[in-house]
């Protein structure tokens, strides 16, 4: 991180110090701002935001400068949780930005399951003041909630100065702030992997439980394909050529995939593979990254791979 960023922190804290009366404010130390682990975390979060909002034509370059007005957070909430709030698209004045943030942050905290204010490491004021620490805490929480399979750099910590302002003066203390948890190993790591991959866990259950989920997903698919006059009866086979998958993605996301971009009636595995690869690319563009699914698995009628894609779409559009 550039040295001037800390200068910016110092300047903002000096100008606004009275408003923190009775509160504790955390400022990242300059040495931590240049820490490679922090840089990697910031880069990962920026890439995640940009891949999620590709279709919105929104490009974030700096976490502090690009998220404070609520525009990016609003689009992330809409894309990841399917929540469309009645707020103005672009808020220019400080008052309008704070009002917009109030609405967005209330909904976000609810979705993140953090109604207990004592557990929340961010607030409207910190986000609007471009506080890097609070912004990262918020984004990490969003990743864990909405896209837990995304690999964030593990065990990222920063040194902070905790400043407390009261009538007696200013008191400061140094602390270590944890941004991401340590990576687990052994059996603990295995249980985490299983939690992150619910489909593989599901397929190990009794047949009637698996069939119940299959029926729910099949109903969801056919409901969205009915306007095209199409119906899926065999989930294991009908997605192998990529055609219905591409049409389903288009229906769910509200865009048309040009017929010239794929094979409507593929006649060989190569054409099927190109269709499925395009479908996975589209999913990646809308922020549904399925790195564990190989296009060839779908063509080969691997039910686990097919299930992962359909279940991911099902969860996104059912707001689960």
Order of helices and strands: HEHHHHHHHEEHHHHHHH
Q: Helical element count?
A: 15
Q: Mean of the pLDDT scores?
A: 79
Taking all Cα atoms into account, the compactness measure Rg is 23 Å
How does the overall form come out from the CA principal axes?
elongated
Helix share, percent: 40-55%
Question: Which percent band covers the strand fraction?
Answer: 5-15%
Report on the architecture of this protein:
The protein is mainly alpha-helical. Helix content is 53%, strand content 8%. It contains 15 helices and 3 strands. A 3-stranded antiparallel sheet has the order 1-2-3. α11 crosses α15. The longest helix has 19 residues. It is elongated. The N terminus is likely disordered.
In short:
The protein has 320 residues and is mostly helical. Helix content is 53%, strand content 8%.
Q: What topology emerges from the helices and strands here?
A:
Layout: H1 3-15, E1 24-28, H2 30-33, H3 36-52, H4 63-66, H5 71-81, H6 94-111, H7 124-128, H8 132-146, E2 157-166, E3 169-178, H9 186-196, H10 198-202, H11 207-225, H12 243-253, H13 269-285, H14 295-299, H15 303-318
Antiparallel strand pairs: 1-2, 2-3
Helix pairs in contact: 11-15, 12-13
Descriptive tags:
53% helix; 320 residues; 15 helices; 3 strands; mainly alpha; elongated
């Amino acid at each position: 991180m550039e040295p001037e960023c800390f200068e910016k922190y110092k300047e903002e804290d000096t100008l606004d110090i009275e408003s923190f009366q009775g509160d504790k404010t955390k400022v990242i130390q300059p040495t931590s701002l240049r820490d490679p682990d922090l840089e990697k975390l910031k880069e990962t979060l920026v890439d995640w935001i940009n891949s999620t909002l590709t279709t919105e034509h929104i490009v974030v370059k700096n976490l502090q400068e690009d998220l404070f007005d609520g525009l990016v957070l609003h689009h992330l909430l809409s894309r990841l949780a399917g929540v469309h709030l009645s707020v103005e698209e672009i808020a220019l004045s400080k008052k309008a930005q704070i009002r917009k943030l109030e609405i967005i942050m209330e909904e976000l905290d609810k979705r993140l399951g953090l109604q207990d204010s004592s557990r929340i490491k961010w607030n409207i004021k910190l986000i609007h003041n471009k506080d890097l620490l609070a912004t990262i805490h918020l984004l990490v929480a969003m990743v864990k909630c909405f896209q837990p399979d995304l690999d964030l750099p593990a065990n990222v910590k920063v040194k902070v100065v905790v400043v407390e302002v009261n009538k007696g003066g200013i008191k400061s203390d140094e602390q270590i702030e944890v941004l991401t948890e340590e990576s687990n190993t052994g059996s603990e790591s295995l249980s985490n992997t299983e939690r992150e991959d619910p489909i593989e866990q599901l397929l190990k259950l009794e047949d009637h439980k698996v069939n119940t989920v299959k029926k729910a997903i099949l109903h969801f698919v056919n409901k969205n394909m009915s306007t095209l006059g199409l119906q899926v009866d065999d989930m294991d086979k009908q997605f192998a050529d990529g055609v219905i998958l591409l049409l389903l993605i288009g229906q769910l996301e509200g865009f048309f995939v040009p017929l010239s971009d794929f094979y409507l009636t593929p006649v060989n595995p190569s054409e099927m593979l190109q269709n499925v690869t395009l479908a996975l690319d589209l999913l990646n563009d809308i922020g549904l990254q399925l790195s564990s699914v190989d296009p060839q698995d779908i063509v080969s009628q691997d039910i686990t791979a097919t299930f992962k894609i359909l279940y991911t779409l099902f969860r996104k559009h059912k707001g689960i």
